[in-house]
């Protein structure tokens, strides 16, 4: 008997979202009230003297702004197994690990059923708007998702990356079915112990079901680019597996092999078709629509540190729409992309006023003195740091993200992600963000395009071992580049940091010449392997764009793989 699956009612979801954003101010007050009522007995809130009050004014007067470091001792007690209500009324049984790429080591963040429900609410909301623009049939999705292992903390709590905690939740699968978004790969592949093997099998499953695939997605666009770069290396082996109906010996885990054996049958016609399509492509341009003729769009987080991968993704996707997924973090969700036909570079996110209580610190004033404003009080065109109060025990928590308000959807603001606050290149009065670094790399890498080469990945470091200190940019390039071109790239990088503090410091040599270090092919793969070895999931991996001296192991990987180094003569 085929189980009948109730599909989501897209119109109803959109209607609910519209009415909620029209009443954003009241919804925010009610949401705060609900959070404080559910968690009022928690030790953290008890100690702050709220005494049962749930209004925003009392909340702001009693509860301080905090960072992760302030909450670390409380979270540590939860991790160690204390069952008393510390941050939440109900006990926390699961801990999320952040990707760890910002600070060099993962942070522990509480995860609970309420956070899972807000995750699914965000998924359903953006799905409704996406489906209205790009209707999909009831096929399958090539979801390049990977789940790292969940472990137990010494206190007996389940710990895993945020994405792993979501993918392993039973509600996730049901929601995906209701969204006509079933993954074409079996669970054994998603939860496979080795991501190289899982990636190969994801690609193989995609090819087996190539006509049914409706969209391609991953948590981050990096994983999609990584998958198709891998396809370029292994496509002939994939064809051989399909032709013979026998899985390559590179897949060694019995659970994965037996799951794939159920799907893989000899199919020489399909193998010939894929072989012919691959040989007919020019430098793999348009690979995705060639392999998957019914794909409607490509979906994943494409903003922030993922923007540099868009050029390569467009190369593979040709004219398929790229849709940036929703805005959130391991700590919680913030907004949904309800304008899916906008290119990722312009993507904005509408805050869902019922998934948390939100405040915003204006950044044009001195941050230490600036008073946070509420969700409906932000001003268009201004930049803010985001503060969240969640259902999972974070109260007035500084997320460290800088956003710009680009407009309002009814009464709820539309936010554009700008950068992480703490990812700054700075030596003295200079301040360059991740976005500034990205723009500099884009400008300089244009000099490589005449050589038909691309910058595969990049990172940076502030080297204070020299006097004066200087910026170091690490590049991994797809082939050999002439010396004079790289020297000009180095000068171009230096000139592209237009921050007034940087330029004036360079002119008087208070900051030394910028250094471009070219690393050997595969260096950034080594960094990815390093994080996966620490327990990060490939789905959640973000290349660290600015490597501080505290992130010593990654800095060593970069420095040990340098093949050429250039100093700028731009100033």
Automatic annotation (TrEMBL):
Q: Which GO terms describe its molecular function?
A: acid-amino acid ligase activity
Q: Origin, by domain of life?
A: Eukaryota
GO cellular component term of the entry, any: cytoplasm
Q: Which UniProt keywords apply?
A: Ligase
Q: Locate the GH3 C-terminal domain: which residues?
A: 435-550
Residue ranges of the TM segments: none
Q: Which Pfam families match?
A: GH3, GH3_C, GH3_M
Which residue intervals define the domain GH3 middle in the entry?
349-420
Q: Which family does it belong to?
A: Belongs to the IAA-amido conjugating enzyme family.
Any idea what this protein is called?
Jasmonic acid-amido synthetase JAR1-like
Organism equals Gossypium harknessii
